[in-house]
Specification:
SAM-dependent_MTases_sf, Rossmann fold, 8-stranded mixed beta sheet, single chain, alpha/beta, S-adenosyl-L-methionine, Methyltransferase family protein, Methyltransf_11, globular, S-adenosylmethionine-dependent methyltransferase activity
Length: 213
């Protein structure tokens, strides 16, 4: 989608339960999911494709310092209203104009699949991380054929980061409705120090190359 189309979407973007997180149960589910995999606050987070700033708001409330970036000026305008204490930049997530090596976390939800070259964009995202920094991706493959399967996303991530961990997200509580397509969380970290992947016994499992949800 173009910048103008995303600007047009901004007025109704938060109407989707997983976008606006207006439902307390949906918001709580995302809060718990993200706090399980993020390093402890305070930490600096790059929210790429931040939209109207809902996840920026959620993480700021938990003590993180968040910089949001989105292609749409109208999305960013709304994000600044929603989270006035955060920093927001209008920019292209394919080439994020953020400080390299400055972030403990790079967070992106349903953005990587839309990049013209997802592998190239992801390499740029990795450059934003401090040693031991964590990448948190929420992606999926929709019934329309758009998106990235978990296996495809792993193929992009594994050459650059380690300890790749994938958790399928089929539960309606994350989306405010029943879904039939593939959606998942992928977590990985850069070399050197950093929080390990979440405990396999309670939150999914680490999977080898070529494995499937």
């Amino acid at each position: 989608m173009t910048r103008d189309l995303w600007d047009d979407e901004a007025a109704h973007f938060d109407d989707e339960p997983d976008h606006g997180l207006a439902d307390p149960q949906v918001r709580s589910a995302w809060r718990e999911l993200l706090l399980e995999v993020l390093p402890a606050a305070p930490g600096r987070v790059a929210d790429l494709g931040c939209g109207t700033g809902t996840l920026t708001r959620l993480l700021t409330d938990e003590g993180y310092v968040v910089d949001g970036l989105d292609l749409s000026p109208e999305m960013i305008r709304r994000a600044r209203v929603k989270v006035p204490e955060a920093e927001f930049v209008v920019g292209d997530a394919a080439r994020p104009a953020l400080e390299p090596g400055a972030y403990d976390v790079v967070l992106s939800r349903h953005v990587l699949w839309a990049m013209p070259d997802p592998a190239e964009a992801f390499a740029r995202w990795v450059e934003l991380l401090r040693p031991g920094g964590v990448v948190v991706l929420v992606e999926g493959r929709w019934s329309t054929g758009a998106g990235l399967t978990a296996a495809e996303c792993e193929e992009i991530v594994r050459p650059l980061l380690k300890d790749v961990w994938v958790r399928p997200l089929p539960e309606p509580v994350y989306w405010g409705k029943t879904i039939e397509d593939e959606r998942y969380l992928l977590v990985s970290r850069s070399s050197s120090r950093g929080a390990p992947a979440p405990d396999d016994s309670s939150r999914g499992s680490r999977r080898g190359v070529g494995s499937r949800p």
